[in-house]
Design a protein that fits this description.
Number of helices: 2
CATH superfamily: Beta-grasp domain
CATH topology: Ubiquitin-like (UB roll)
Strand order of the largest sheet: 2-1-5-3-4
Structural class: alpha+beta
Oligomer: single chain
CATH class: Alpha Beta
Largest sheet: 5 strands, mixed
Helix content: 10-25%
Number of strands: 5
CATH architecture: Roll
Radius of gyration: 12 Å
Length: 98
């Protein structure tokens, strides 16, 4: 699977191993996503999933609760969003990006 994201006007496509979370995958490939707690409690790593949401494990537990408080929609917490097996492309951007 590939993960693509835009941050400050640039896009980077990276390979993503199944089961990894988006924060670790992007950090490893020098395409960091801001984060703080890694436990779905702060929302710092809130990202908008522009494409490929079905390629991520569904949100559950604390992530699902925080996403509901943040208004739902096509968003995930990158520290909790884990990659499912199989080929595809996930496009994302920080939730506060315009």
């Amino acid at each position: 699977m590939e993960v693509s994201g835009s941050r400050i006007g640039r896009t980077k496509v990276i390979d993503a191993p199944e089961g990894g979370d988006l924060v670790d995958i992007c950090d490893y490939h020098l395409a960091p996503i801001p984060f703080s707690c890694r436990s779905a409690s702060c929302g710092t790593c809130h990202v908008e999933v522009l494409e490929g949401a079905d390629l991520l494990e569904p949100p559950e537990g604390p992530e699902a609760e925080l996403l509901e408080l943040l208004g739902g929609g096509p968003y995930r917490l990158a520290c909790q969003a884990r990659v499912r097996p199989g080929p595809g492309l996930v496009r994302l951007r920080p939730a506060l990006a315009d």
